[in-house]
């Protein structure tokens, strides 16, 4: 059975795990309501891209 020759250092371990961080969600400022919302989503009042989608 294979056994590592030497211990992996903290720096080497952390460099390997750099892609595991959390990403910030894409928030945009809604022009009509002035509130933040997720991009490419319908706003709370039911409008999207300046058009009323849901009444």
From TrEMBL:
The ranges of region (Disordered) come to 1-55
InterPro entries under this entry?
A: Ribosomal_bL32 (IPR002677), Ribosomal_bL32_bact (IPR044957), Ribosomal_zn-bd (IPR011332)
Query: Where is it found, in Gene Ontology cellular component terms?
Result: large ribosomal subunit
Q: Where is the composition biased (Basic and acidic residues)?
A: 29-38
User: Which segments show compositional bias classed as Basic residues?
Assistant: 7-20
Q: Does the keyword Metal-binding apply?
A: no
A GO biological process held by the record: translation
Q: Which UniProt keywords apply?
A: Ribonucleoprotein, Ribosomal protein
The protein's GO terms of the molecular function aspect are: structural constituent of ribosome
Which family does the UniProt entry place this protein in? Belongs to the bacterial ribosomal protein bL32 family.
Q: What is this protein called?
A: Large ribosomal subunit protein bL32
Q: What species does this protein belong to?
A: Listeria aquatica FSL S10-1188
